Write a sequence for this structure.
């Protein structure tokens, strides 16, 4: 250490437990680690295994401790465990938010678990523990997506010195000289860095995984689990954090559930054809409520009850399919006290303009004779009057937020019928598509008239609002009830705390089943890339894809740096969709993405 840093350290550790330092982050980490080393030496002087720790808050050491298991006859008396409990006493709170824990040896499962439960921001350790390390070596408790908190880890700070203290201690027990112990420590440290493809501890790349589901094959969380294995195969010391994502369509609930901040509710609801089925939605758990606007927040996924997989996709089915099931879920959430309800649009079997949804909430939608119209798109042919009064009364002060990255309006060439009708099963050979779009136009006018009795809308007409055509027009129904449309991927990234993890990342890996020109229009990988570059313009973004179109110029121009198809060898679609093949493909793609990143370092 040079004279300046030595003086800085002297100031830092010479003023007791409350000491402050300023300077380069690497230098500061070394300074605080040297304070932990002093604690380790104090442990050795008492015959304890030399492990020391300090807890730092706002640039100051607020607690310090060393291993005392033998002295206290306490299996929990690990250095960092004692330091964290002392830090909680000093701060007067159990949450150690804003704190960093410096410890000379990688934490075990017990101590890493306490770091999760105490909500620490960061752990910095010196020597890795090949027999018990739980933040990178044997386990990765710090970024396990199944837990409700994650924290940053920096490894290898003063690794040689920390390992040297341990080896010297055990060498004395076994009768070895200090010189022999130091030589052992050097050999161990050298072995740690023998793989040229592996970064040194201070340079371990930080990788964020934000991969959408590969529909029909694997969920977001499954894809990230296998990609992570590939990344670590290339760089075992990489710090990998997974944030499962979706864009408001299928997989939205699964992605949010993986964050650990939501609880599931089971209900009965109607499928697209009125049959009762079991369904679920999410509510924000008590612990995480503050991060997303309060405890009374619910998330509904339309595809859960009226998904395309519940329809035979015939013209008759497409004409009859109703969105009432989504209304059933919303009503249940309101009854349980939800004040804000996110409704994920996408992947639905319906093209009814939200007719069933509105009626489930109590709206009266009638024909010229005053009778309720039939469900589905076919019912729109006879709509003469829309009364939203009962629906507004049931909603009360509950706020509806539809999340989707579909930009289609309700009607016209790019509207719900002409764009999405075909995928729902409408056959132009059997159905007059122009007539169906005409029904939707008339229905849109009825909605305009009904919603204007409550407020001056932010739009001239529902029919032309971008996104109103999402989920077969369900977006328009949400707008008619005073709700708003928000970007699906941006909302999801906010909910899973993407910015916090991406801020310090070197590489973001995203992806989905197929990349094409529509990816730029708002699909999840593009939303991830834009957000990542906004946070850090120098960050690299790699997108993995099951398939791609020939020309991805627009995708590259919009912010994705590299697109990697995941197939390892030629295979049929049926084979590629198998779980074992998808697993192997994604694992290999993760390794390739990591090695591609290393080429540019």
């Amino acid at each position: 250490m040079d004279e300046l840093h030595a003086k800085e350290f002297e100031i830092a550790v010479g003023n007791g437990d409350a000491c402050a330092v300023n300077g380069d982050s690497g230098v500061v980490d070394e300074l605080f680690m040297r304070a932990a080393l002093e604690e380790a030496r104090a442990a050795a002087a008492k015959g304890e295994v030399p492990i020391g720790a300090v807890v730092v808050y706002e640039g100051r050491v607020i607690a310090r401790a060393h291993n005392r298991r033998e002295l206290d006859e306490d299996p929990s008396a690990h250095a960092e465990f004692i330091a964290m409990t002392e830090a909680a006493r000093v701060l007067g709170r159990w949450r150690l938010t804003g704190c960093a824990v410096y410890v000379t040896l990688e934490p075990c499962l017990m101590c890493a678990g306490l770091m999760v439960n105490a909500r620490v921001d960061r752990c910095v350790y010196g020597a890795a523990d090949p027999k018990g390390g739980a933040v990178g070596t044997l386990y990765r408790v710090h970024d396990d997506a199944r837990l409700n908190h994650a924290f940053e880890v920096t490894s290898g700070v003063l690794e040689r010195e920390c390992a040297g203290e341990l080896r010297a201690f055990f060498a004395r027990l076994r009768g070895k000289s200090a010189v022999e112990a130091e030589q052992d420590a050097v050999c161990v440290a050298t072995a740690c860095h023998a793989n040229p493809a592996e970064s040194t501890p201070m340079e371990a790349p930080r990788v964020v995984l934000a991969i959408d589901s590969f529909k029909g094959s694997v969920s977001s969380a499954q894809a990230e689990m296998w990609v992570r294995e590939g990344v670590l195969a290339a760089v075992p010391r990489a710090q990998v954090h997974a944030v499962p994502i979706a864009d408001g369509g299928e997989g939205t609930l699964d992605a949010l559930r993986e964050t650990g901040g939501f609880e599931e509710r089971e209900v009965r609801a109607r499928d697209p054809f009125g049959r009762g089925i079991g369904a679920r939605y999410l509510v924000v758990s008590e612990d995480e409520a503050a991060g997303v606007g309060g405890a009374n927040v619910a998330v509904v996924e339309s595809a859960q009850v009226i998904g395309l997989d519940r329809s035979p996709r015939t013209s008759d089915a497409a004409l009859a399919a109703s969105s009432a099931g989504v209304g059933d879920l919303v009503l249940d959430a309101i009854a349980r006290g939800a004040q804000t309800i996110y409704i994920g649009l996408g992947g639905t079997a319906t093209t009814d303009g939200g007719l069933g949804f509105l009626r489930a909430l109590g709206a009266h939608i009638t024909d010229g004779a005053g009778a309720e119209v039939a469900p589905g798109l076919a019912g729109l042919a006879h709509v003469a009057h829309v009364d939203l009064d009962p629906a507004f009364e049931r909603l009360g002060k509950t706020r509806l937020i539809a999340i989707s990255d579909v930009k289609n309006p309700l009607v016209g060439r790019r509207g719900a019928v002409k764009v999405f009708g075909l995928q729902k099963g409408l056959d132009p050979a059997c159905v007059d598509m122009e007539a169906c779009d005409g029904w939707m136009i008339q229905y849109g006018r009825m909605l305009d008239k009904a919603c204007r009795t409550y407020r001056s809308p932010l739009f001239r007409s529902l029919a032309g609002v971008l996104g109103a055509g999402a989920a077969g027009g369900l977006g328009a129904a949400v707008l008619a009830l005073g709700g708003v449309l928000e970007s699906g991927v941006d909302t999801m990234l906010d909910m899973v705390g993407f910015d916090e993890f991406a801020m310090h990342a070197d590489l973001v890996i995203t992806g989905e089943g197929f990349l094409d020109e529509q990816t730029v229009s708002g699909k999840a990988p593009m939303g991830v890339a834009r957000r990542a570059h906004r946070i850090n313009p120098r960050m690299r973004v790699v997108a993995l894809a099951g398939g791609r179109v020939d020309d991805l110029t627009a995708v590259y121009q919009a912010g994705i740096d590299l697109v990697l198809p995941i197939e390892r060898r030629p295979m049929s679609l049926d084979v590629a969709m198998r779980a074992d093949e998808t697993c192997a493909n994604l694992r290999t793609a993760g390794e390739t993405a990591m090695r591609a990143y290393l080429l540019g370092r």
